[in-house]
What does this fold into?
Amino acid sequence: MSEDGPVDLGEPDDLEGGPSYCTYTDYDHGVAVEELPATGADADGPEAAVFEELQGVEDPEMPISVVDLGLIYGVTVADGRATVTMTLTYTGCPARDYLQEDVRQAAARADGVEAAEVELVWSPEWNLEMVTDAGKADLREFGVSV
Amino acid sequence: MTLEGPGDLDDRERAAVEAELRCLGDDEFVTAERYTEWQVRGPTLESDIAVANIAQDELGHARLWYDLLEGFGHDQVDLIWERDPAEFRHATLVERPYEAGDWADPVLRGYLYDTYERLRVEALSESAYAPIADRVEKALGEEEYHREHAHNWLERLCEDAEGRRRVQAALDRLFPHALTLFAPTDREEAVVDTGVRPVPLSELRREWRNVVTPFLGSLGLEVPVADHAELLPAARGRDGDHTDAWESLYNEFTFTYEQLGRESAPALMPEPGEADADV
It folds into this structure.
C-alpha cells in the first residue's frame, strides 16, 4: 500500500487549542408542520376529554406533558373507541412501550371513552417546532434551553 | 399507485415487501449486536458512548422495520428469538467478527455500512408501500452523525502510516463482505417492479462505489477495483447462506432467551392495541 498518504488532510484543529465542545449541543429546530402537533384546542366532546387526560401524561425523562412535547398527532373517538395517533422523538426510545401504554390508559379514562388504542406514526418527523409554547416554558423551567 | 398497508397487497407484493423489510431489519439488528462488543472497549470514553449510541439507533431502526413485519402477523419471537438462523437475511459484512483489538475495523465497517444504508433508505423514500416511505425521513435524520463519526475517525486513523496500515487491512478484509449488502434476494425483481424499492440494488452498488472509492482513496487507501462478481465472498447472506461467524453470534444473542426457557417475549405491560381497556 502507499505510504505517501493523502495530499492535503488539513490541520487537525483540536490538538493545539485544547479540547473543543461537542458539536451536538445545538438543537436543530426543524420545519414547522401546519396543524401539528394536535393539542385539542378545537376539540370538543369525548375528544376534548381525551386531550385533557393526555395533558396529565408526562415524558418519562422531563416534566412535560406528551401533548406539549408535541408527540400527539391526532385523537378520534367513535362509538366510545378512542384512537390516539402519536410519534416519538427518537426511534430507539427505550420508553416506547411504557409511554404508549400510559397514553392508552389515559385515553381510556376519559369521559365518553370505553376503550382506547394507540397508533404509532413516524411521519412527519417530530422536531422541536412541535413543542408548544407552554411546553417550551416547561422545558426552560426544567433547565433545557429551547 | 400507493399501497397503504398489508391489506392492499397481493401475494407477490407482500413477498416483495417482506423480503425488503427483512434485509433492512436484519442488517440493523445484527449490526447493533456486533457493536455491543465495542461499547466498553473503544479507545476513549467518548468512543464508547458514540458506539453505544450508534448501536441504540440501529436497534431503533431494526424495530422500525420489524414493526412493519408484525403488520403481516409476525411477532418478536418468530422474528428474532426463535427464527432459524438460516432464515436471517443480513449481509455477511455485519456478522463478521471484529479483528480483536483493532479499532480500525468497526470504524471502517461503520463507514461502509452507513454509506450503504443512506443510499438504500433514500431509495425507499419513493417506495410504493407507504408505511415504508413514511419511516424514511426519521431513519435518515438519525443516521447522519453515524457517517460523520466514521469520517472523522477514518481521517484521524489515516494520518499516520500505522493507522493507515490498519485501515487498509480492514478494507482488504471487509470490502468483499460489504459487496454482499447489494446481493439480491430471490425477490429482487419483484421488489423493483412493484415499486417497493424503485431503484435496483445494482444501481445502489454503483452509486456506493462512486462514493466510497474516491473518499477512501483520498485517505491514501487502495480500494479494490475489480468487478463485484470477482470480489464477492462465497456466502452472500441475503440468500440465507452465512459465514461461520453467524452461528456463534446467533447463539450468543439468543442465549438468555434459551437459558430462561422462554417461549415468548414477555412485556412489562400489554402491547398497545392488544390490551383491553382495563382501567
Remarks:
- Strands of chain A lie at 72-78, 81-86, 115-120.
- Helices of chain A lie at 45-55, 96-109, 133-142.
